[in-house]
Design a protein that fits this description.
single chain; 4-stranded parallel sheet; Universal stress protein; UspA; Rossmann-like_a/b/a_fold; Universal_stress_UspA
Length: 141
């Protein structure tokens, strides 16, 4: 069956459902679960979105914001682990920072995943309709 199952998480209910499916698959054999989440990079001109100026952040401000985004990403994995019974399963975790679809495909290769189990609708539904969803980009990537 499967040896390694990659489960990208984004904090959505669909991701929790995907983790439930992945846990069932892992229990059906001897697969290891590899949970991951991606903290996207903060945009350079975030000030426009927060009512400020278009001036880019300083490097120190970007690093502080990036660290906060990584901390939130770790919380996504913790919440998923709390929501799904993973007892008796071998579980690894990773948090990456960058473009989700690209990093999910990289991680799948890195951990030699036999399958990626992920929700098809996450937290970015509107953005996904306009630019293509992460799950679609992963499936064709």
């Amino acid at each position: 069956m499967f040896k390694t199952i990659l489960v990208p998480l984004d904090g959505s209910e669909h991701a929790i459902k995907a983790l439930n499916v992945a846990a069932s698959l892992a229990r059906g054999g001897t697969a290891k679960l590899h949970l991951m989440t991606v903290a996207e990079f903060p945009p350079d001109n975030i000030g426009l979105f927060t009512g400020g100026t278009a001036e880019p952040f300083s490097e120190a401000e970007r690093e502080k914001l990036a660290a906060g985004m990584k901390e939130e990403a770790h919380k996504v994995i913790e919440q998923a682990r709390d929501a799904v019974d993973l007892s008796g399963l071998e579980v690894e975790e990773s948090v990456r920072q960058g473009r989700p679809a690209e990093l999910i495909n990289e991680e799948a290769e890195k951990v030699t995943a036999d399958v990626i189990v992920m929700g098809s609708r996450g937290l970015s539904d509107v953005r996904g309709m306009m630019f293509g969803s992460v799950s679609h980009k992963v499936s064709v990537g």
